[in-house]
């Protein structure tokens, strides 16, 4: 969300970020002078939350809305429809929809019915969700997760940093950032690391 908002700023677009509470994301948006509003999302099924979303949508009158994760996607599907604003719903991982409960399937059906586009960050996630609920083919897209990174730095300072991290300024370093939980599949990382080690590549993995 933060990177997306920064990109909007670079494109000189008018935008507003809605967050559920004053937290790390809100503090980062504030530090970067990105406009945001707090819409309290407490409660499992909140009519007040839905009404506030619709009020925000009508007041800001955007050309489009982007929402993330199943809960927000569900509420925004209804609120955007009531406000008459196109909606793009984004799904980031299977933990958001795992289990395939009746409630999850009902939410997915609502998102599929009311949203204008459904975006998955991987083919695997799209296939997983499609097994739970079939969205219309023309409504689904896959945009792989990622972030912009600077060009590799070969300066003396960069080599010194590599030496501090890996003890070797010519060693390739792979950084891993993410919560240590099953959904992040660090078992796969360990298998890959073993294969690379067996090939005697000069590589170090750092988990942050």
Annotation keywords:
four-stranded parallel beta sheet, 8 strands, alpha/beta, 208 residues, two-stranded parallel sheet, 8 helices, globular, single chain
How do you describe this structure in short?
With 208 residues, this protein is of the alpha/beta class. It has helices spanning 2-10, 24-31, 47-60, 70-83, 102-114, 123-132, 156-166, 186-198, and strands spanning 17-19, 36-38, 65-68, 87-91, 117-120, 140-142, 172-176, 203-207. Helix content is 44%, strand content 15%.
What does this protein structure show overall?
It is globular and about 60 Å long. It contains 8 helices and 8 strands; from the N terminus they run H-E-H-E-H-E-H-E-H-E-H-E-H-E-H-E. The longest helix has 14 residues, at 47-60. It is of the alpha/beta class and 208 residues long. The mean pLDDT is 85.
Structural class given helices, strands, pairing? Answer: alpha/beta
Order of helices and strands: HEHEHEHEHEHEHEHE
Low-confidence sequence ranges: none
Rg of Cα set: 21 Å
In terms of DSSP E residues, the strand content is 15-25%
* Overall mean confidence score, pLDDT: 85
The strand order across the widest sheet is 3-4-5-6
Figure out the total of helices: 8
| N- to C-terminal distance | 20 Å
Q: Identify the overall geometry.
A: globular
Largest sheet: 4 strands, parallel
Fold topology:
Blueprint: H1 2-10, E1 17-19, H2 24-31, E2 36-38, H3 47-60, E3 65-68, H4 70-83, E4 87-91, H5 102-114, E5 117-120, H6 123-132, E6 140-142, H7 156-166, E7 172-176, H8 186-198, E8 203-207
Parallel strand pairs: 1-2, 3-4, 4-5, 5-6, 7-8
């Amino acid at each position: 969300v933060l990177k997306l908002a920064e990109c909007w700023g670079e494109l000189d677009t008018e935008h507003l970020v809605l967050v559920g509470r004053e937290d790390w994301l809100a503090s980062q948006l504030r530090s970067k002078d990105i406009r945001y509003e707090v819409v309290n999302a407490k409660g499992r099924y909140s009519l007040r939350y839905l009404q506030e979303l619709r009020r925000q949508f009508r007041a800001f009158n955007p050309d489009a809305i982007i929402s993330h994760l199943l809960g927000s996607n569900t509420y925004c599907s209804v609120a955007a429809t009531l406000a008459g604003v196109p909606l793009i719903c984004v799904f980031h991982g299977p933990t958001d929809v795992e289990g395939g409960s009746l409630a999850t399937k009902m939410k997915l059906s609502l998102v599929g019915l009311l949203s204008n586009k459904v975006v998955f960050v991987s083919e695997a996630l799209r296939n997983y969700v499609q097994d739970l609920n079939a969205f219309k083919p023309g409504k689904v897209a896959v945009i792989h997760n990622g972030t912009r990174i600077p060009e590799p730095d070969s300066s003396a300072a960069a080599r010194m940093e590599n030496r501090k991290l890996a003890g070797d300024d010519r060693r390739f370093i792979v950084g891993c950032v993410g919560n240590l939980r099953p959904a992040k599949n660090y078992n796969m990382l360990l298998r890959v690391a073993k294969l690379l080690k067996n090939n005697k590549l000069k590589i170090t993995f750092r988990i942050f």
